[in-house]
Amino acid sequence: MNVISFALRRALGLVLTLFAASFLIFGGLYAAPGDPAALLAGGQRPNPEVLAAIRAEYRLDDPFLLQYGHWLAGLLTGDPGTSAVYRTGVGGLIAERAATTAFLVAYAGALIIAAGLGLGTLAALGGPAVGRTLTVATSAAQAAPPFVVATLLIWLFATRLGWLPVYGAGSGFAGRLEHLTLPAVALALSFTAYVARVTRTAVRGELHSDHVGTAEARGLPRAAVVRRHVLRNAAAPVMTVSGLTLAGLFAGTAIVEEAFGVNGLGSLLVQSAARQDMAVVMALSMLIVTAFTAVNTLVDAASALLDPRVPQVR
Amino acid sequence: MSAIHAERVPAVRGALRRAAARDPLLAAAGCVAALAVAAAVAAPLIAPYDPAGVDQLEVFGPPSAAHWLGTDDLGRDVLSRIIHGARPTLAGPALVVLVSGVLGTALGVAAAWFGGRTDAVLSRALEVVLAFPGLVLAVIAAAVLGTGFAAPVVVLSIAYVPVLARVVRAAAIREAHLPYVEALRLQGASGPTICLRHLLPNLAPLILVQSTVGFGYALLDLAAVNFLGLGLQPPAAEWGLMIADGRSAVLGGHPGQALFPAAAVVAVVVSVNVLGERLADRFGLVEA
Amino acid sequence: MSGPREPALLRVEDLHVEAPGRPLVRGVGLDVAPGEAFGLVGESGSGKSLTARAVLRLLPRALRTRGRILFDGADVGAFTPAGLRRYRSGGVGMVFQDPRAHINPVRSVGDFLTEGLRTVGGASRRRAESEAVGLLEEVGVDAAPRRMRQWPHELSGGLLQRVMIASVLAARPRLILADEPTTALDATTQEEVMAILGDLRRERGAALLFITHDLDLAAAVCDRVGVMYAGRVVEELPARELERRPLHPYTAGLLRARPRIRGPRGRLEAVPGRPLPAYEAPDGCAFRDRCPRAAEVCAAAPPLRPLGAGRVACHFADEGAPGTDFGEDVGEDAGGGAPGEIGEEDRRG
């Protein structure tokens, strides 16, 4: 079956890309100026013996490729090194925060899909007034980046409305839902607008296509025409774009987590970069790149499977 | 000289008014973009105050005749800071678009022209760069190179290459298969001549539209990096940084310090997007 | 209107179609009897496709229509949405020109064929599928069960058009509209597809409204032929009369512009001038700028009046058969008008 070989080829491409990316990340941070041993030793002026001990412990005197291999092996076995700032394993730091960030991404993703697809379809199928209103609204929303929306929401909810918390991540499902609503909205708004616009364009394009004319000429009920011909055909392009958008969310968490004081992976990445905590930056970069690329590949493959015209043997 | 001027100005004005009546959105976008550029170019001439001029007596002053947009937590004039902030805020994305435009066009045309192995190698390399979201690359750069103006601009210039290179490559392949290119080859024109004198001018509208759209994205990415504290540092005036600086003021009930620069960001990005869309319409390109 | 005939299945009365400021169809009237094949012939822009789409109420909303369309005595324009769906799903079926564009590319052939049977007819999946396979075999598609599982892009244009015909036959319509059904196909396939459409509709007793720019094809397939020019029907004749005694100078010009296989080879004649859409045509007789017989009187629009076995809109039509009368002076300065066929087709007609 060529679907399987198609999937295998995509998976292989994904692995190769990630391998190259890991090399770039390690190489880039290896080339950073400054002595990693000094960073690891902390703020005080370390004596040479301590430095030597650290160098030995972290294999800092090994050749570049050996260090890279060691790091890569660590990543794959779940031991991505030790944080110079927190002085604990990077794996543990990530594990503590992963749930919060995953919740945030899922929440924002759900908002984007539900509102983006819904509003886009409504704008295409509704009357001209609905279409125009939504076009103006989405144009404005699309240009409102997460850090702007976050600031606006913090102002509104901290000083005016007070319905929802503007700081922290909360605990438990209800607490998270409450605390992460504003961050998720801030993260989702511009992406939602984008997905809505793409959906509207795709649905309108199908609505005026010849084959939909055929379906109408056959006297099919309007609902069947819309569902089986308009929405089904618009699904592939809309899915591609929505998927790329979701992949972009992983990077966007850094902004809203910083803005709303959410202790997640995004804010960990930003703070670690500011303090040059290289082991954490490398591991998190690799994690984000992996998530981003994996989602992209999945979406690409899925939309190829949705459209029978895309040749699966290439 | 002055006579000619006197005759011409009303004609120009009339033409502009007619254009504005035909497409008010485009006219508004053009005005905002022109204002922003003018502010960036002539900031010291336009700005009413020193952007770094601290005034302890004027902390959190409301908008007034003296300070149109009020003053911030250190008593600095917000309008002057926005006007001066236009410089790094616009110069950054301009550099990103310029550098990634040159690199992306060169790589895209090269991949299309040579094809085969060159194309395969370039495409794979671009795919690897594409695996890094621009913001993540900028964060890594901050860790490696430290904060400042240059590091995020350099890495975003690289991060923006693949998208443009792919678009240019696809268009160049289409263009290179047109009969006129074949005819030029038969006439003995060299590869570089065809690429520079014939392919590039025909790709120019596409590159222009892509760069306009890219400018908006780069502005948002760079402002985000500055917002995160990984780019320019206080007391520099830059819009993303001003928004971050104003966060505690927002919580204290003084939103102007953060929201006015935020409005500036949104206004400029909306304008750039409108200009990009209209350019694409004008050249008959489908929005990517 | 034209002699004692059984009551019309489809009657189009004084149909006008108008884009803002541009008349496209200007008062078309025609009758199609049950089981009859009627050919509507005309150039690009003559309004023939718009007329067919108006019969199905498939025109874009931006176009305004006037006049009446009666199907089996019921006013199509007054149908409720449910009534319109019933009419489209059971009364009339449409074979479109370009099957590649008019069949949903992301649904399988079987899906396309059974959709109407299952959604509107309420048939079970198994029954709909066996019926669809039978229909595919009838329209000459080999390996029908396998075709059911294929995608539209995997079939040739000729096969796809047979699938389209099968899908129309599946609904057992009383009237089939065929809008240039073979124009997008190559010549040998054209003949086969046309023969299949003609045979199967005759077997089933369905009437046919055949839209084409090919006068010969219309005369071969149809019982009666109407010729359209610039948004009007200028002539209507039984098909066997058409070749021998055309009544309108335009029809006569078209007939002379055909290439011939037999007989001496000469230069091809063409109708002088270029085909005009309705909104560019002159007042009065729309053909008078291109007509060799044009005179003062043509400034007044000639009514479509009965003459012999048909109807014609020409002031000179009873002064002898134009097909034999004039000719030597026509087409010497052949400027426009493609020889043989009447220019290429545009989809909106």
From TrEMBL, chain A:
<feature type="transmembrane region" description="Helical">
    <location>
        <begin position="234"/>
        <end position="256"/>
    </location>
</feature>
<keyword id="KW-1003">Cell membrane</keyword>
<keyword id="KW-0813">Transport</keyword>
<feature type="transmembrane region" description="Helical">
    <location>
        <begin position="278"/>
        <end position="299"/>
    </location>
</feature>
<keyword id="KW-0472">Membrane</keyword>
<feature type="transmembrane region" description="Helical">
    <location>
        <begin position="102"/>
        <end position="125"/>
    </location>
</feature>
<dbReference type="Pfam" id="PF19300">
    <property type="entry name" value="BPD_transp_1_N"/>
</dbReference>
<dbReference type="Pfam" id="PF00528">
    <property type="entry name" value="BPD_transp_1"/>
</dbReference>
<protein>
    <submittedName>
        <fullName>ABC transporter permease</fullName>
    </submittedName>
</protein>
<keyword id="KW-1133">Transmembrane helix</keyword>
<dbReference type="InterPro" id="IPR000515">
    <property type="entry name" value="MetI-like"/>
</dbReference>
<dbReference type="InterPro" id="IPR035906">
    <property type="entry name" value="MetI-like_sf"/>
</dbReference>
<feature type="domain" description="ABC transmembrane type-1">
    <location>
        <begin position="98"/>
        <end position="299"/>
    </location>
</feature>
<feature type="transmembrane region" description="Helical">
    <location>
        <begin position="137"/>
        <end position="157"/>
    </location>
</feature>
<keyword id="KW-0812">Transmembrane</keyword>
Automatic annotation (TrEMBL), chain B:
<dbReference type="InterPro" id="IPR035906">
    <property type="entry name" value="MetI-like_sf"/>
</dbReference>
<comment type="similarity">
    <text>Belongs to the binding-protein-dependent transport system permease family.</text>
</comment>
<feature type="transmembrane region" description="Helical">
    <location>
        <begin position="90"/>
        <end position="113"/>
    </location>
</feature>
<feature type="transmembrane region" description="Helical">
    <location>
        <begin position="25"/>
        <end position="47"/>
    </location>
</feature>
<feature type="transmembrane region" description="Helical">
    <location>
        <begin position="125"/>
        <end position="143"/>
    </location>
</feature>
<keyword id="KW-1133">Transmembrane helix</keyword>
<protein>
    <submittedName>
        <fullName>ABC transporter permease</fullName>
    </submittedName>
</protein>
<keyword id="KW-0812">Transmembrane</keyword>
<keyword id="KW-1003">Cell membrane</keyword>
<feature type="transmembrane region" description="Helical">
    <location>
        <begin position="149"/>
        <end position="168"/>
    </location>
</feature>
<feature type="transmembrane region" description="Helical">
    <location>
        <begin position="258"/>
        <end position="276"/>
    </location>
</feature>
<dbReference type="InterPro" id="IPR000515">
    <property type="entry name" value="MetI-like"/>
</dbReference>
<keyword id="KW-0813">Transport</keyword>
<keyword id="KW-0472">Membrane</keyword>
<feature type="transmembrane region" description="Helical">
    <location>
        <begin position="206"/>
        <end position="232"/>
    </location>
</feature>
TrEMBL record, chain C:
<dbReference type="Pfam" id="PF08352">
    <property type="entry name" value="oligo_HPY"/>
</dbReference>
<keyword id="KW-0472">Membrane</keyword>
<dbReference type="InterPro" id="IPR050388">
    <property type="entry name" value="ABC_Ni/Peptide_Import"/>
</dbReference>
<keyword id="KW-0067">ATP-binding</keyword>
<feature type="domain" description="ABC transporter">
    <location>
        <begin position="10"/>
        <end position="255"/>
    </location>
</feature>
<dbReference type="InterPro" id="IPR003439">
    <property type="entry name" value="ABC_transporter-like_ATP-bd"/>
</dbReference>
<keyword id="KW-0547">Nucleotide-binding</keyword>
<comment type="similarity">
    <text>Belongs to the ABC transporter superfamily.</text>
</comment>
<dbReference type="InterPro" id="IPR013563">
    <property type="entry name" value="Oligopep_ABC_C"/>
</dbReference>
<dbReference type="GO" id="GO:0005524">
    <property type="term" value="F:ATP binding"/>
</dbReference>
<dbReference type="Pfam" id="PF00005">
    <property type="entry name" value="ABC_tran"/>
</dbReference>
<keyword id="KW-1003">Cell membrane</keyword>
<keyword id="KW-0813">Transport</keyword>
<feature type="region of interest" description="Disordered">
    <location>
        <begin position="318"/>
        <end position="349"/>
    </location>
</feature>
<dbReference type="InterPro" id="IPR003593">
    <property type="entry name" value="AAA+_ATPase"/>
</dbReference>
